[in-house]
Amino acid sequence: MLGIGGTESVSTPTLLESIQHVFIKKVAVNSGGKHCLALSSEGEVYSWGEAEDGKLGHGNRSPCDRPRVIESLRGIEVVDIAAGGAHSACITAAGDLYTWGKGRYGRLGHGDSEDQLKPKLFIKPIPWLP
To answer: pTM of this prediction?
Structure first.
């Protein structure tokens, strides 16, 4: 899903109208995971694409064909994002690390193998960040 609505292929660059008013400073894409994250200049995180394993962070496993803000991160200033094959992560201005998505083999760092459908605090704050 390209974030423009629907599942059609597009051969030319296309404006994401649903977030054209938002200044995006970073995009994280995992083509194998079929999902994208975008970080706004205000620190909000948007996600879209396939939602298997909860990797979009919207609290469900439903795909999203347009960028949608991750509500559980609203009000938290996010400074970096990452998209893995079946999971996602972000770091906040306070140095906190959140992870969500497929938890198999403990990949989210929460001490279990549970899937997380919303961002869950992993470390507060990350000790090795300046």
So the answer is: 0.85
For 2, what's the count of Cα atoms within 13 Å in the CB-facing half-sphere? 14
Domains and CATH numbers, the chain: 17-121 (2.130.10.30)
Tell me: the pLDDT tens digits for 18-43? 666 776 888 888 777 689 899 999 99
